[in-house]
Design goal:
The protein is α/β, with parallel strands linked by helices. Helix content is 24%, strand content 31%. The protein contains seven helices and 14 strands. The chain has a seven-stranded mixed β-sheet, with helices on both faces. Strands 2-3-1-4 form a four-stranded antiparallel β-sheet. It has a three-stranded mixed β-sheet with strand order 5-6-7. The two termini are 39 Å apart.
Length: 274
C-alpha cells in the first residue's frame, strides 16, 4: 500500500522500545540515534505516546514533528522511474519497464534509497560498468539502506549478497524489499555496524554511506582485499578528502561520477573475486 501522506514523528530522550498496544497499523517504526528515539506514525499519536513515556523511568518525551512524507524523501514524488537499465517501481504501482530494463519492486519505507537520490543513480551506473567488465559473484553491501543496490547486483548476476545495515528501520525495509523481489534466499541481511563486517571476502564491495565510515573502511587492511569497490555518499569538498585517502591505499580509482555535487567512485583492488 502507498505510504501515508504525513509523518507524525515523536522525539523521546532515551532509547525506548514501544509496546505492542502502541504499535498498531499506523505505527511505521522506531529510529534510535544515540541517546534519542524517534517514533514514526501515519496518524497523530501524541497523547498515547506521552502517556506511555510517562510510565518509563529512563525516558522523557521531547517533541512532536509533523511533515509530509514526500519531504522526508527529499520532495520527490514516489513513482516508478528508470535509470541505468533498471525500472524502480513502488510496490503499489504496476511496473511498465522499457525494453531490456530490469524491474526492481521497492517500498521506500523510512529508509534512505528511494532511487531518486543522486548517489543511488550513480551507484547503479557504476554497477553496470563493473558487470560489463567482470562477473563478481559475492557482493558485500555496507549500508544497504532500502536494499536497492543489493537487488541490482543480484539482477546482474551476484549471489550471494551480504547486506549490512545498522539502522533498524532501514533493515526492516530492506528485508521487505528482498521479499517483494523474491530475493530473500540470495541475501544475508545483517544488522550491524558496517565496519564490523568489512573484512568479509567479496568480489565487489558497495559502500554508499557517510564519509567518516568510508574513511574508517579504508583503514581496515582486511577490507582492501576485494576486486572492485563502489564508494558513494560523498558530498562536495568531501571528494578531495576521500580521494587523498584512497591514494594512500592499494586501491586504484577507475571512475568518478558527479550528480548535483554528490560523488560516487569506482575503484579497483587486487583481491580474489571470491
Amino acid at each position: 500500500m502507498p505510504p501515508p501522506e504525513k509523518l507524525f514523528i515523536y522525539e523521546i530522550e532515551g532509547r525506548v522500545y514501544p509496546p505492542d498496544d502502541l504499535t498498531g497499523n499506523d505505527f511505521l517504526g522506531c529510529w534510535r540515534e544515540g541517546d534519542y528515539s524517534y517514533l514514526f506514525f501515519g496518524n497523530p499519536k501524541e497523547d498515547q505516546v506521552k502517556a506511555w513515556v510517562a510510565t518509563l523511568t529512563d525516558a522523557r518525551y521531547s517533541s512532536e514533528n509533523v511533515m509530509n512524507y514526500a519531504d522526508w524523501e527529499g520532495g520527490q514524488p514516489l513513482k516508478a522511474t528508470s535509470m541505468a537499465g533498471f525500472h524502480l517501481c513502488p510496490v503499489w504501482e504496476t511496473p511498465a519497464p522499457g525494453p531490456g530494463e530490469t524491474v526492481i519492486r521497492m517500498e521506500p519505507g523510512l529508509a534512505f534509497g528511494s532511487g531518486y537520490h543522486p548517489t543511488t543513480r550513480t551507484c547503479l551506473e557504476l554497477l553496470r560498468r563493473v558487470y560489463a567488465a567482470d562477473t563478481p559473484r559475492r557482493v558485500l553491501d555496507l549500508g544497504t539502506g532500502t536494499g536497492i543496490l543489493a537487488l541490482a547486483a543480484l539482477a546482474l548476476g551476484a549471489e550471494p549478497v551480504i547486506a549490512v545495515e545498522y539502522n533498524e528501520l532501514a533493515m526492516r525495509t530492506a528485508a521487505r524489499n528482498f521479499k517483494h523481489n523474491q530475493r530473500q534466499g540470495q541475501v544475508h541481511l545483517i544488522q550491524a555496524d558496517a565496519r564490523h563486517f568489512a573484512h568479509l571476502p567479496a568480489g565487489l564491495a558497495l559502500a554508499n554511506i557517510h564519509l567518516d565510515v568510508l574513511l574508517d573502511l579504508l583503514d581496515i587492511p582486511a577490507f582492501l582485499n576485494k576486486d572492485w569497490y563502489i564508494f558513494s555518499g560523498i558530498l562536495g569538498a568531501q571528494l578531495e578528502v576521500f580521494l587523498k585517502r584512497l591514494q594512500e591505499t592499494p586501491l586504484n580509482e577507475v571512475a568518478t561520477l558527479d550528480e548535483n555535487m554528490w560523488f560516487s567512485v569506482l575503484a579497483r583492488g587486487g583481491g580474489s573475486l571470491e
